Amino acid sequence: MMIAPLQDRHVQMLQEAWQAFDGSKGIRQMEELSAKVSQNRVFRLTFEDQSTLIAKCSSYGEYEQFIDDHIRIRQWSEALAGSQFQGFLADTLVKENQIFSHFGNPEWVIFYEEKPIASSLPKILTMKQVGFFAREIGKFHQQSLPLSQKMAPLQKSAMTDIRDLYVSLDLKATPYPLLDSERKYLMEQCETFLKEMDRLGYHHRTRIPLLIDWNIGNFSIKGEEEQFQFESRWDYDWFRMEPAMFDFYFCSRIVSHEGDRADFSYWPHGFFEPRFKHFLTHYQLENPLFGEDIFFLKEVYRFFILNYVIKDGPKFFRPQYFQRLKQESIHLYLPEIDSFDFYHLYQDLKRVLK
Length: 354
What we know:
Layout: H1 9-21, E1 27-32, E2 41-47, E3 52-58, H2 63-79, E4 94-95, E5 98-99, E6 101-103, E7 108-112, H3 127-144, H4 147-150, H5 158-170, H6 180-199, E8 208-210, E9 219-224, E10 227-233, E11 240-242, H7 248-255, H8 274-283, H9 293-311, H10 313-316, H11 319-337, H12 342-349
Helix pairs in contact: 3-8, 5-6, 5-9, 6-9, 9-11, 9-12
């Protein structure tokens, strides 16, 4: 007998999606796994034969782009075969040689294989764990580098996303009200980002597949806690093709002295902790960095706030989170980042960065 809140519209949607995919075995139980921060809903489906699948109900972004992203993620997973990261990425289910999805209005459903969770890192890492985490990220980026030439480029980029935001601000077309002063400030922030990205040579940088959103709860490790390797990774909400540094803001959050917290905020302070310097020195042992890359971090952070909070926040975050993050972004986060001295960070690190 299926255990699920029958009044929840997702129950019917998941049943319909499973019937469209297979339907040869019945669903015995639905268990919600959602973090309840985003508007996405995630479920574990347990079937009559005790096998399981993960199902995601999403309305974030454009449906066609969502499927396009998952096609590339599957190519990415296949390209990692034979490397340390073979089987690392949770695969989406395929039907008739195509990524399976079930489109409803306004949401759609996609199925993933359930990846084993060997063990997880603690909420606050030791310095030794910071070093191993950095090297695993560096190896993962290095192994993903060949896909920059093999994978078809995405239509969207950091630049196109922020240009789109600028236009919506200029036309007063945001899905939420803004004061004129707030709108003007955000447009100035978009202009700064676009100018700085040009100056830093964004168009000439290698773009690789990235997952952006790294947190303790969406990947697992194997081996000893003080000397580990990545085991499995899931949750592809913010998949992109961008320079490797776009992963670094969320890496800085994982390695910070505060660690992974349920009561989250998006301050940039983690970039300037000794722990992040330790992360960078170990990362570059696997995937070389250059001193100038440090200056890119400021714009990586600006992009995250402008794109994922200001532009996409109403579609991604649950309303109570979005309203808080929007106000904090305009009045705290963006003003704060402009006061930080990334040149000092560059000076500290240029002796060890190749």
